[in-house]
Amino acid sequence: MKRRSQFLLFLLFMSAIAPLSIAANMSSEVSRCQDYANQEFKSGSGEKASKVMLFEDKSTLDRAERSLGKQRIGSVLTGQGKLQMANGQERAVRFNCMLSDKGSPVIFYASPLEADSKEAQALMNPPKSEQALSPKK
Is 0.85 surpassed by the pTM of this model? Predict the structure, then answer.
């Protein structure tokens, strides 16, 4: 009985600290996804964006631990950001970034938000205290 109690306490402790460890690593995950997205939008065959800005405070990181074909997915980062298009226009977007079980981005997808939505307006005109990560040059 004592071992069972210790085991249950251990499980309770681990479930309490797991979200903390994910949150602590989110800044590096956001940065890696942003770098990956910038490369994809500049070199991809689709629409070209000159800069991708992802907002850490509007992002969540969830463990996935699944396979997509032969690719192992360890976590999925979802959130909001902005794309600066090659023509100079900016677009508010919602994004998904799938990361491998080793933490490197493997898939990035962004869908535009309705330009007149409150969500899009808040992203396009954020308070000075809320800023996106600056992409590396």
Answer: no
DSSP letters, the chain, are: -HHHHHHHHHHHHHHHHHHHHHHHHHHHHHHHHHHHHHHHHHHSSS--EEEEEEEEEEEEEEEEEEEETTEEEEEEEEEEEEEEETTS-EEEEEEEEEEETTS-EEEEEEEEPPTTSHHHHHHHS--TT--PPPPP-
Cα gap 31→105, rounded to integer Å: 10
Residue matched to tokens 């808040």: 122
Determine the length of the chain.
Answer: 137
| CA-only gyration radius of the chain, Å | 18
What does pLDDT average to over the chain? Answer: 77
Per-residue model confidence (pLDDT) at position 8: 44
Check if the beta carbon of residue 29 is closer than 8 Å to that of residue 54: no
Of the pLDDT bands very low, low, confident and very high (cuts 50, 70, 90), residue 2 is low
**Of 117, 111, 49, 107, whose CA–CA distance to 77 is shortest?**
107
Q: Is 129 exposed, middle or buried (0-12, 13-18, 19+ CB in 10 A)?
A: exposed
